[in-house]
């Protein structure tokens, strides 16, 4: 027979109650943890898979009519020859585009090709008839590079666009063998904040400015050819460390200008064919440290103009067939110029030098002048007579270009010969103490007048001296003569 149950004592009941409470609390905590984990997982979603380190960039092969693909970093694009519709934009780094034989047309407004990531390279693309806005600073262009550090364009051929290339906020960009043709409304190349930009073998025809560079240091231009710009062929402002070598700028409306910067070097370049009231081959304005070495300044209204620029050196340059070979001026409230010329060749100019700044420092030595005296007794190729390369007429003509109509008239020629022969008549004392000789060009030698001119000069000087002496003895007309 089963024994009857005994009633639990107070201590036993307390122990069982505590055990039940602990079990309930632990169950609630486990439920809360499970519910919180499930909520977090549903809010955040599944974690993305780890990237595959062995993945290779994709190759996109396009034919005319195919849509432009979505690109990832390092992808390659190979275009079949033919015509494609723009615009295209690449905003993935390191993309390579092989486009030989491909032609991108359009859009009607905006740029055709936009490169907006570092390290992009495009080869062999032709762009036609894109864009409408020729704004100098923000034009529609065949290619617009922005934030495109280290990008490279090779063999770009563009025509019918307001601008050829627009480069901004992009460093270490290199353009190789570009051919750009456009109308005289926008720039061929405009670069802003484009440090270490390199332009190699770039040809620019037409446009408002051929090459416009602003606030971009250490820019290098090699083998460029710029022709027919409506305004500036080459225009560089607010930049340091410019290097221009073996380039040609010709037949522009104004000329080329390097302004408001420092440390520019121009070597073996040709600036030619700039004719007009305000035209010059090369303007150096308010620059600190500019070297022009080798090359030619030919067929310009003014060969080289220096305005308020310090430490300008011209070495081994041919300055020929120009109205004024070198003109030195000063802008109001700006510093005076300091110019040194050595080993240059002045041939066929109406006036070799004009200085319109009384405080300018202009030093000449060892330059060759076709109008220098041929006297060379020791046969060393250096004239025995110092040459005066300027005159008061050259100064007046530089201020009033219309006076150049009288530049070769008998009266002006006689007056220039008189200044060269009679120091008292000179308004300028600038001279080259050791001018080198050049072959005869048919130009009248200002410092070596013939017999008739010498007699005329002597007669003028004697007349001036006699008039001065007579005026010193003659009383003024208003004075009373004592009787």
- Stretches with pLDDT under 50, minimum 5 residues: 1-8, 10-18, 38-48, 444-459, 465-469, 473-483
Name the assembly state. single chain
For the largest sheet, list the strands in their spatial order: 1-2-5-8-11-14-17-20-23-26-29-32-35-38
Structural class: alpha/beta
In the residues, how many domains can be counted? 2
Extended strand count: 39
Q: Percent range for helical residues? A: 10-25%
Largest sheet: 14 strands, parallel
The whole-angstrom Rg is 39 Å
Spatial gap, N to C terminus: 185 Å
Question: Mean pLDDT, as a whole number?
Answer: 83
Instruction: Please work out how many helical segments DSSP would assign.
Output: 4
Q: How much β-strand is present in the residues? A: 25-35%
Coarse morphology: elongated
Describe this structure in words.
The protein is α/β, with parallel strands linked by helices. The protein has two domains: 71-252, Single-stranded right-handed beta-helix, Pectin lyase-like (Pectate Lyase C-like, 3 Solenoid), CATH 2.160.20.10; 254-461, no CATH class. The chain is 16% helix and 33% strand. The strands form three sheets. Strands 1-2-5-8-11-14-17-20-23-26-29-32-35-38 form a 14-stranded parallel β-sheet, with no helix packed on it. A 13-stranded parallel β-sheet has the order 3-6-9-12-15-18-21-24-27-30-33-36-39, with no helix packed on it. Helix 3 (410-421) packs across helix 4 (451-473). The longest helix has 35 residues, at 10-44. Mean pLDDT is 83; it is low at 1-8, 10-18, 38-48, 444-459, 465-469 and 473-483.
């Amino acid at each position: 027979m089963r024994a009857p149950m005994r009633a639990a004592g107070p201590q036993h009941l307390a122990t069982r109650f505590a055990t039940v409470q602990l079990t309930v609390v632990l169950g609630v905590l486990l439920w809360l943890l499970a519910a919180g984990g499930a909520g977090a997982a549903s809010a955040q979603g599944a974690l993305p898979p780890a990237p595959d380190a062995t993945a290779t960039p994709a190759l996109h092969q396009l034919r005319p009519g195919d849509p432009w693909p979505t690109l990832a970093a390092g992808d390659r694009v190979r275009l079949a020859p033919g015509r494609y519709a723009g615009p295209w934009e690449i905003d993935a780094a390191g993309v390579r585009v092989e486009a030989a034989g491909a032609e991108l047309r359009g859009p009607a407004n905006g740029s055709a090709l936009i490169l907006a990531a570092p390290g992009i390279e495009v080869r062999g693309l032709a762009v036609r008839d894109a864009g409408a806005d020729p704004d100098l600073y923000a034009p529609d262009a065949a290619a617009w590079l922005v934030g495109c550090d280290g990008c490279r364009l090779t063999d770009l051929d563009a025509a019918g666009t307001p601008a050829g290339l627009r480069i901004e906020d992009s460093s270490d960009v290199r353009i190789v063998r570009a051919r750009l043709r456009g109308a005289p409304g926008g720039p061929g190349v405009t670069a802003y904040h484009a440090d270490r930009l390199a332009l190699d073998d770039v040809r620019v025809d037409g446009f408002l400015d051929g090459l416009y560079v602003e606030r971009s240091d250490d820019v290098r231009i090699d083998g460029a050819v710029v022709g027919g710009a409506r305004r500036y062929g080459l225009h560089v402002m607010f930049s340091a460390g410019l290097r221009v070598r073996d380039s040609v700028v010709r037949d522009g409306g104004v000329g080329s200008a390097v302004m408001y910067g420092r440390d520019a070097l121009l070597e073996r370049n040709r600036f030619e064919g700039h004719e007009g009231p305000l035209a010059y081959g090369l303007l150096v304005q308010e620059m600190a440290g500019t070297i022009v070495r080798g090359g030619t300044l030919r067929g310009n209204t003014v060969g080289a103009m220096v305005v308020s620029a310090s430490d300008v050196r011209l070495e081994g340059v041919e300055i020929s067939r120009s109205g004024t070979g070198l003109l030195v001026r000063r802008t109001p409230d700006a510093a005076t110029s300091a110019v040194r010329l050595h080993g240059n060749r002045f041939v066929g100019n109406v006036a070799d030098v004009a200085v319109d700044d009384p405080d300018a420092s202009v030093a000449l030595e060892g330059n060759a002048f076709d109008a220098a005296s041929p006297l060379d007794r020791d046969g060393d190729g250096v004239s025995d007579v110092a040459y005066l390369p300027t005159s008061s007429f050259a100064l007046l003509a530089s201020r009033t270009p219309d006076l150049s109509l009288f530049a070769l008239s008998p009266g002006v020629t006689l007056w220039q010969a008189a200044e060269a022969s009679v120091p008292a008549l000179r308004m300028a004392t600038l001279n080259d103490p050791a001018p080198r000789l050049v072959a005869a060009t048919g130009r009248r030698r200002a410092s070596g007048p013939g017999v008739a001119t010498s007699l005329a000069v002597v007669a003028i000087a004697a007349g001036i001296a006699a008039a001065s002496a007579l005026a010193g003895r003659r009383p003024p007309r208003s004075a009373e003569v004592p009787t």
